[in-house]
Write a structure and sequence with these properties.
Layout lengths: L4 H6 L7 H6 L14 H13 L12 H4 L1
Length: about 70
């Protein structure tokens, strides 16, 4: 599923759900720092804490945190 900004912010339940994330390998790819946006932090917290979905973060270089 190609997720645009609206989907990530308004329809994130379609991305973060046990059926999709546990039964299938799921990736949420972002450009730069994965935690530069609070929405991305929210997705991780809801997946890991509320739905007990195992999550792994692979950090990337970003101009936001390079300075």
């Amino acid at each position: 599923v190609l997720a645009d900004r609206f989907m990530v912010e308004q329809n994130s339940d379609r991305i973060v759900n046990k059926h999709g994330c546990i039964e299938n390998n799921t990736a949420f790819l972002v450009v730069g720092d994965p935690f530069a946006a609070t929405t991305h932090c929210d997705l991780l917290l809801r997946a890991a804490k509320e739905q007990h979905i195992e999550c792994e973060v692979i950090h990337n270089a970003s101009i936001m945190n390079a300075v």
